Amino acid sequence: MSGEPAYKMDQIEGIIREASRLFDVVRLVDPISMTVYTIEDGRLRAQPDSCYHVWNKTDRCENCVSARCFMEDERYSKFEFIDNDIYHVVAQPVEVDGERYVLEVVTASHDNVLLSAFGNNAFVDRITTFNHKVYTDDLTGLANRRFLDERLGILIDRSAHEGTSLSVVMMDIDDFKNINDGLGHLAGDAALGQAAAVLREALRPTNEDILARYGGDEFIAVLQNVSEVELERRLQAIPPIKVNDELEVTFSIGAFYQDKAENMDAKALIQRADRAMYGVKAGGKNSFAVEE
Fold first, then answer.
1. Is the pTM of this model over 0.85?
2. Strand, helix or coil at 227?
């Protein structure tokens, strides 16, 4: 265990009960199982799969401060904007009965109070735009490398916890250099945008999965709870990219599939998928391979 504060469950229950008198929301979060613990009827009770319900959302937050806090073992905070309200969230890693959790403290401020010095909604727009830019690739609109690095470990742990499958897929555009050299970088940028649209349509990632631009002309997908047969069907369905009337480019794709995910290192999973992809390239490109 690292240096986070350590408590017994009855101790953390007392802390949450007392802090709830001062703050709008105080809760214990398990980012892996998405379980939260809050005071209900005077006792600390578990609410599975309800982490984001406090924000009236149906999916995990894009900038999940608890996930980042958990993975990096550091205190983090963020602003969350819901309708006309602004919430400040502070996430603190803690140890409870020998297990790692995140303690979240949430305070609310209405925008007519907080924004009076900035002009109505200016601060909200600025922070929202900043959060989007931090986690989004400008060119393709997909998640970026930062988002992948922060979220992959959580997906690995969650799939291992639930005993479900996990697929890591590396995709590289074949002969992409020829587009840039022959048609120019604007054509290359357009091809990357088309690639993002094609991959999103064929792979159909959920909001709990990851589809990201890894760098250059490489993309990566992390898909949960998809069978190997379904994974291969989706990979087979990825079409070529039509650059112009005379030129189409294809993908070389490598995937690493775990039927029952284990707690593997994120870097090792990517390396396995990357190795499979380069095997496809060495074998002639325009195909895919799945490694187990």
1. no
2. coil
Q: What is the rounded CA–CA span in Å between residue 115 and residue 138?
A: 28
Count CB neighbours of 151 within 10 A.
24
**Whole-angstrom distance, CA of residue 102 vs CA of residue 64:** 12
SS3 53: helix
User: What's phi and psi for 216, nearest 5 deg?
Assistant: 60, -125
CA dihedral 18, 21, 22, 28 (to 10 degrees): 60
Active site residues: 217
CB under 8 Å, gap of 24 or more: what pairs does 61-66 form? 62/131, 62/132, 62/135, 62/147, 63/131, 63/134, 63/135, 64/31, 64/151, 64/154, 65/89, 65/91, 65/104, 66/29, 66/31, 66/91, 66/102, 66/104
Per-residue pLDDT of the chain (292 residues; tens, 9 = 90+): 456 789 999 999 999 999 998 898 899 999 888 889 988 888 888 888 667 666 666 666 767 888 889 888 899 988 877 766 778 899 999 999 999 999 999 988 765 555 554 555 666 677 677 777 888 999 999 999 999 998 898 899 889 888 999 999 999 999 998 898 888 989 999 999 999 999 999 999 998 899 999 999 999 999 999 999 999 999 999 999 988 877 889 999 999 999 987 777 899 999 999 999 999 999 999 999 999 8
Q: Which token pair is 73?
A: 């073992």
